[in-house]
Amino acid sequence: MWNAERYGAQLNSEELREFDTLNCDYEINWHLKNLRTKMSPTSEELRSRSVTVKNRRLAYLDKLVLDGKYFSEDAMREREPYLHHEFVGKFQDPSARGMARPGERWSETLMRRCEEAILVSKIREEQQRLGVDEMEWVGNERNQQQQEEEEEEEEDEEQDVEEGNEEAKKVNCGVSSTEVRI
Questions:
Q1: Residue 22: inside a domain, yes or no?
Q2: Is 97 helix (H, G, I), strand (E, B) or coil?
């Protein structure tokens, strides 16, 4: 009967009826009953299967939570990089992610930086897909700082030019007044 156990799932109901003559054996009867319930389950059996599957999932989730890996920041960031960035990441210092951590080997730091680059590219793809303004893209913090510095430098230059123009006017006024006096 090991064939029914092994290949029973491929049998149809007519082929299963061929084994009814052997149903006096407990093991054969159990396999036949099990195969028939899989072919046409009752609503109670379907509900029971659903509950079993849900219980397995819940047990696995409980295991992940107890291990402390499922809700760790790194795990959440790997699962949904864009959502993590929207709710948590944009409030964090981006330079801290690239720095070496105490006790970390150089190879681990490099691997973490590579993973970080992959996550940033996934976040950017999602931002592009959602139509987020390019100025708000992750990783543009450096560009924004450079633009702000350039704008400040331009403002400083404009102020210097204005101050220079005012001094030139004063000098011109002084020169013209001395010329008039002579």
A1: yes
A2: helix
The total number of structural domains in the chain stands at 2
Number of H helices, E strands in the chain: 9, 0
Q: What is the separation of C-alpha 82 from the centre of its chain, rounded to a whole number of angstroms?
A: 5
Q: Do 89 and 63 sit in the same domain of this protein?
A: no
- Tell me the residue range of the domain where 20 lies: 2-67
Q: Which residues, in sequence order, are CB contacts of 123 under 8 Å at separation 6+?
A: 81, 82, 85, 89, 138
11-44: per-residue pLDDT in tens? 887 877 877 777 788 888 888 888 887 787 788 8
For the chain, how far is it from start to end, CA to CA, in angstroms?
Answer: 130
The whole-angstrom distance between residue 29's C-alpha and the CA centroid of its chain comes to 51
10 Å CB burial of residue 126 (0-12, 13-18, 19+) is middle
Amino acid 155: pLDDT: 81
Ramachandran quadrant class, 68 (left: phi over 0; alpha: psi -120 to 50; beta: rest): left
Separation between Cα atoms, residue 166 and residue 164, nearest integer Å: 5
18, 36: one domain: yes
- Whether 141 maps to a domain, the answer reads no
State pTM to two decimals.
Answer: 0.39
Q: Among 141, 133, 64, 65, which Cα is nearest to 97's? A: 141
Torsion of CA 17, 19, 20, 23, to 10 degrees: -150
Q: Is residue 21 part of a domain?
A: yes
